[in-house]
Amino acid sequence: MQRPARVQITWHPQALVGAGWFALLALAAVSVGRAHPHDAPLLAFVVIFPLLWTSFASVLALAGAHALELSVGDLPGDARAMTMWPFALDLRNRTRIVPALGVLLDASLASGSFSLPSSSAHALDALAPGATATRRWNVIVRNRAPLRLGPFRATVSVPGSAFNATAVFETTHTVPILPALYQLEPTVTSLLAGRHLAVGRLTHVPVAAEEFIGAREYRPGDNPKLIHRVLSLRAPEYPLELYVREFEDPSEDDVSVVLDTTAPPDDLVALHRYRFEKAIAFTAALCRTLAGRRFKVRFLCQSGPGDVVEQRLRPVDLDMDKLEKVLAGLQLAGDRGTIAGMLVGEVRRRGAAVIFVSLREHEEETERQLPIVSVTPNVVPVFTHEVVWR
User: Fold this and answer.
1) Which of 36, 66, 125, 176 has CB 3.0 to 4.6 Å from 78, enough for a Cys bridge?
2) pLDDT in tens, 303-314
3) Diameter over CA atoms, the chain
4) For 113, which DSSP code?
5) Which residues fall within 8 angstroms of residue 185, CB to CB, at 6 or more apart?
6) pLDDT per residue as tens digits for the range 65-115
7) What are the start-end ranges of the H helices in 36-179?
């Protein structure tokens, strides 16, 4: 439990007006008391009782605020955009004598550049000495920026008090926000059409280290050594119709997914940020889908000048958790030259299928010259079945 860092006093708007009326009432009571001495005790009670009650209520409010302690319930290690998650506050009155009356429990929330100085407040009629109360909130975060909770406030408002006493707890908590959860269409795997090459990887790998996965029709450029003789001899139009064997190297990645993080020009910042959020959620869903179908995925992006992030995903949930934490902190901090070099490097070195999640409306000339699949912003909705929220 944490004690308040400070207690703020907020005077009621009508406190000054009430003080003026009280002064007039006291002057009137003195005048009437001089004219009617036998009514002086009653007049004194009429004047003194409101003053005593206001003083007592004010002291009770101030003492109640100082007596409060607060603790934040177990927060999740992270949360996901567009989904609801709860957090709780425990408020305790540590004294054995002073009750806390009319308590209003509130918190500040901030996500990126957006902030809410006040959340949906919870009211407590009274918190008895030594008692503890728990109040819960459900929060839905719509963007990927880290969520900051705090500071927290507990305002004590006693009827008749000249002011409200607010106990301010300066503690803050930051919760990383993971990308929104997309459910993709089953047809998303069509992005990998023709990913297996009969010529094998571009780098030399012994055939013994590869896994035979099937056969297909011969295409110009295929390695003649990989011709499947039995199937070719059985072909109706042999020797014009030939079949070759396909192999998959288990030591290499099947798919390279490259995310575009290019910093946009000033006039397109808002548009590219919107596209970037959708691209991040789509990339996470794409990698999750491919890894769930036993593909070996290699994710790459640029997180800053000269800083390239590489994350390998095998069909393991732990790898996906690491990727989402990487995606949670990405910003538009890349440049076209570095990202183009990443694409060329993936095509030349690995021989795997390369999927480029772009923020541009159309493919650039460099992308058209490479054997890659570019997913532009207008293609993302085609493969997105639904966005999971709440």
Assistant:
1) 176
2) 988 899 999 887
3) 132
4) T
5) 382, 383, 384, 385
6) 999 999 998 787 788 888 888 889 999 999 988 899 999 999 999 987 788
7) 40-66
